[in-house]
Design a protein that fits this description.
Elements lengths: L8 E5 L4 H12 L3 E5 L3 H13 L3 E3 L9 H15 L4 E4 L12 H30 L2 E6 L12 H21 L4 E8 L13 H14 L9 H12 L10 E4 L9 H6 L9
Parallel strand pairs: 1-2, 1-4, 2-3, 4-5, 5-6, 6-7
């Protein structure tokens, strides 16, 4: 069987860690030329070197700051100069500032800028090229918490809700041009995201509690759990899907969790 993304040029933001990194690795293994977007120069260079050394194709053109319009435009320009096209955009860049010790106003502004404005900037640096080619696939990363929060995180969840609105508006406009736009809504995924909230035993206890009480499948997800569905949405297997906001969270957002079931007086099979 041919690799699913042979010859496809893919720009992935947030690719120097977590879910974006897992997507970059999987896409490269499926034949895509991967453009690694991220601010960590050391990680970007080492990931590109690793993928190239194992027979894949990857580039890191230097630090990409999605909150900067010129930075996005520079990465897109370098990609087009070398490869002549961008077939796929995966927008995974995002961050919470809850553990940074910032005042409320600064934290709010930075969260909206990193998670919503940054996604908007990246998308509209790429979309004109895709319109010109009348071809393309875009996946935007939201969060289960945007519309199904397990705990309040106002600015972060507001930003992610905006990403879902961006998804469906883009999908409506771009569908006649042969461009598909979909959204991944991760549940709790074990990445450095959680380092802003806790560490050590406190973090492990937090994740264990979430897995046992909020996730119907009973475990915390991995970055690879997100990479697979992203590949599906960027492959021809999903050629008739656009405007979809897909929960990927072990059942969160789609079925009752164990804790919700108890609250509703519905004990899960085998539960105590």
């Amino acid at each position: 069987m041919d690799k699913m993304l042979n010859g496809q040029v893919t720009l992935i933001t947030g690719a120097t860690s977590g879910m974006g990194e897992a997507v970059a690795r999987l896409f490269a293994s499926e034949g895509a030329a991967v453009i690694i977007g991220g601010r960590s120069v050391g990680k970007g260079e080492s990931l590109a070197a690793e993928i190239n050394a194992t027979g894949g194709t990857a580039r890191y053109y230097g630090a990409l700051d999605v909150t900067s319009v010129p930075s996005n435009e520079e990465t897109v320009a370098k990609t087009l100069a070398e490869f002549g096209k961008i077939d796929i955009l995966c927008a995974f860049a995002g961050k919470t500032f809850d553990g940074d010790g910032l005042d409320e106003k600064t934290s709010y502004d930075k969260t909206i800028e990193a998670n919503l404005t940054g996604t908007y900037n990246t998308v509209f640096a790429v979309v004109p090229h895709m319109k010109e080619r009348r071809s393309g696939k875009i996946v935007i990363c939201s969060s289960n918490g945007a519309f199904n929060p397990t705990t309040p995180a106002y600015s972060y969840h507001m930003a992610k809700a905006g990403c879902e609105s961006l998804t469906v508006n883009l999908a409506m406009e771009l569908a006649p041009l042969g461009i598909r736009v979909n959204c991944i809504k991760p549940g709790p995924i074990r990445t450095s995201f959680w380092d802003e909230l806790a560490s050590g035993d406190e973090l492990e206890n937090l994740l264990d509690g979430i897995a046992r009480h909020e996730v119907p499948m009973g475990r915390i997800g991995t970055a690879d759990d997100i990479a697979g569905p992203t590949l599906f949405l960027c492959s021809e297997l999903s050629s008739y899907i656009t405007g979809l906001c897909l929960y990927v969270g072990g059942g969160i957002g789609q079925v009752y969790s164990h804790a919700q079931s108890f609250i509703l007086g519905k004990t899960p099979t085998g539960g105590k």
